[in-house]
């Protein structure tokens, strides 16, 4: 009989362990995934002490705030900007990260801050802005003798970027480039003037040739006419 009892106890131990393990796993599956802790800022009733805490739930936030501020239990949490009480888990989940809260001990009440604008800015995120255009100018040198280089970069709507790099070389090289461009301009101007003068000369030559041809065509007609007519006879009229 003793042997049968000891054998039954040995067989029942692993079975109980399996049942307890399966029960714990079932509870974890039913509970769902654990919530990630979120950051919050808490202060005491006088706003003389501020702390940052991380908590995934309201109960954990109450515990962390009490430990951080060294307040006697129990405590209550309210919004620092307007005194709204945070009492339910559903309302706690609607709070944004970094919300400023006030921990109140028994007998303490919420009071408005002296500088409301500063306190309100702690719990409100800055409005999201949309950048239309951003232009930056970068002035730099690649060599001590250089006059300077300028880089212009423009960003449109935060997605499209345009950039232009203007490099100014040394003074000697800059003068050489200016003389080269001046020489090229003078050569081009000389070619234009030379071509224009040749064209005008051709027009003048063509006009003179036409005048000579007209004069030659008039000479045969002048040869046909007598150079001088004979004088008419003179008769005296008797009175």
Automatic annotation (TrEMBL):
One Gene Ontology BP term is: apoptotic process
SUPFAM superfamilies associated with the record? CAD & PB1 domains
Q: Where does the record place the CIDE-N domain?
A: 36-112
- InterPro entries membership: CIDE-N_dom
Q: Which SMART domains match?
A: CAD
Q: Record keywords: Cell inner membrane included?
A: no
Q: What keywords would UniProt list here?
A: Apoptosis
The organism sits in which domain of life?
Eukaryota
The record ties this protein, via PANTHER family, to:
CELL DEATH ACTIVATOR CIDE, LIPID TRANSFERASE CIDEC
**Record protein name field:** CIDEC protein
Organism annotation: Dicaeum eximium
Q: Which gene encodes it?
A: Cidec
């Amino acid at each position: 009989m003793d042997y049968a009892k000891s054998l039954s106890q040995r067989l029942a131990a692993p079975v109980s362990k399996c049942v307890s393990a399966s029960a714990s796993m079932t509870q974890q599956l039913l509970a769902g995934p654990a919530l990630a802790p979120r950051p919050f800022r808490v202060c005491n009733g006088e706003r003389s002490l501020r702390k940052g805490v991380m908590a995934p739930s309201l109960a954990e936030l109450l515990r962390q705030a009490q430990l951080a501020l060294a307040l006697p239990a129990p405590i209550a949490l309210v919004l620092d900007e307007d005194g709204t009480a945070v009492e339910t888990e559903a309302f706690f989940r609607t709070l944004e990260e970094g919300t400023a809260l006030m921990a109140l001990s028994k007998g303490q009440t919420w009071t408005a801050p002296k500088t409301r604008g500063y306190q309100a800015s702690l719990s409100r995120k800055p409005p999201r802005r949309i950048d239309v255009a951003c232009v930056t100018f970068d002035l730099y040198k690649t060599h001590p003798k250089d006059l300077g280089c300028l880089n212009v970069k423009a960003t449109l709507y935060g997605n499209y970027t345009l950039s232009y790099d203007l490099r100014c070389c040394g003074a000697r090289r800059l003068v050489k480039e200016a003389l080269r461009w001046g020489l090229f301009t003078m050569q081009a101007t000389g070619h234009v003037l030379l071509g224009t003068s040749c064209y005008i000369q051709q027009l003048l030559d063509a006009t003179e040739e036409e005048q000579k041809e007209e004069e030659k065509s008039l000479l045969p007609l002048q040869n046909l006419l007598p150079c001088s007519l004979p004088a008419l006879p003179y008769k005296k009229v008797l009175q």
